[in-house]
Amino acid sequence: MNPFPDDIFTEPEDVDPDTLANLGPLAPLAGVWEGRKGIDLNPKAEGPERRAYLERIEMQPIDPQPNGPQLLYGLRYHVHIATPEEDTTFHDQVGYWLWEPKTGLVMQTLAIPRGQVALAKGQGQAGDATLVVRAERGGPGYGICSTDFLEWAFRTDSYELEITFHADGSWSYVSDTMLAVRGQAAPFRHRDVNRLTKVGEPTLNPLARIARGETPHLKVHGLG
Ligand code: HEM
Question: Span 113-138, mean pLDDT?
Answer without folding.
Answer: 98
